[in-house]
Amino acid sequence: MLLSLIIIAIGFALLVFGANFLVDGACNIARRLGMPDRVAGLTIVAIGTSLPELVVSITSAAGGHADMAFGNVVGSCLANLLLILGLSAVIAPVRLSRSTQRFEIPVSVAATALLALFANTDGQVTLVEGIILLVAFAAFVVRTAVVGLAEGAGEPDAEATDADADPVAEPLVFRSAIMVVLGIAMLKFGADFVVDNSVGTASALGISERIIGITVVALGTCLPELVTSVVAAFRGNSDIAVGNVVGSNISNLLLVMGGPALVANIPYDAAYNLDLALLAAFSLVLVGFAFIGRRHEMSRANGVAFVVLYAAYIATSVLR
């Protein structure tokens, strides 16, 4: 038992460092290719911080542990929204941009509804449905990139300008490519460690894979989002904190659930309907915060409320 817990901890560490290597390497390559940092963050970073969930879910599906796949996604989304964004707001009030309110959060709610529809239609997410989820995710990424490029056109990037002035300051593409490959390898081995040993530990303790998925595995795989958002909050960059959370949730619902369906049909437990309903409801509550108190802002009190709600969710999930 102790050995399994140690291996799980090592797996989480590999997931976090692997995601960091992958995101840093990909962003460096994007910068070298002339892509603005803002666009790279909206696309590459959002996908990169969701890769631990993606790898864990695909590994779970391939190993026949469907409950772990769904639990990982639902648990990670709720942890992102309630715990991570809540903690960010406790550190410093979070600004909610009009784009977040009018487009990204509605897309997140729509993605939740689409996944719930597919899962409840025939009790599983099939290959065709997985492809639809992936196409929807690709459309979201393309739209985000196009809008981001349009908004960023003509805005000089100080960091990029400095890098152009001093080529040595910009990491070599070859070194960045190695970081990407190393990050992917660390994600793969980390996911294997977490899934295999979490299932074994759950069996030994008599705990269902569903509970392990929405608690231990979900918290472990959302660590990249936690680190990114909390650091952004300390630096006063609320746009990154909110964009990271909402963008990662969209990635989880469309990419992370669509990917495993390409490997095998993912059986669905109707018990997750409540979790998905809560995810949609809390996403709408986030929009409501923009009109409570100071306009277009999530206050510290709102953040405390979200953290308390997350603690209550975990407690009731364990008791269900």
Describe the structure.
With 320 residues, the protein is mainly α. The chain has helices at 2-32, 37-62, 66-91, 98-122, 127-152, 158-165, 173-205, 209-221, 223-234, 238-263, 272-289, 300-319; strands at residues 94-95, 124-125, 266-267, 297-298. It has a two-stranded antiparallel ribbon with strand order 1-4. Strands 2-3 form a two-stranded antiparallel ribbon. Helix 3 packs across helix 8, helix 3 (66-91) packs antiparallel against helix 12 (300-319) and helix 5 runs antiparallel to helix 10. The chain is globular, with a radius of gyration of 19 Å.
Characteristics of this structure?
mainly alpha, two-stranded antiparallel ribbon, 2% strand, globular
Provide a concise account of the structure shown:
The chain is built from twelve helices and four strands, in the order αααβαβααααααβαβα. It has 320 residues and is an all-alpha fold.
Annotate the secondary structure layout.
Layout lengths: L1 H31 L4 H26 L3 H26 L2 E2 L2 H25 L1 E2 L1 H26 L5 H8 L7 H33 L3 H13 L1 H12 L3 H26 L2 E2 L4 H18 L7 E2 L1 H20 L1
Antiparallel strand pairs: 1-4, 2-3
Helix pairs in contact: 1-2, 1-7, 2-3, 2-5, 2-7, 2-10, 3-8, 3-9, 3-10, 3-11, 3-12, 4-10, 4-11, 5-10, 7-8, 9-10
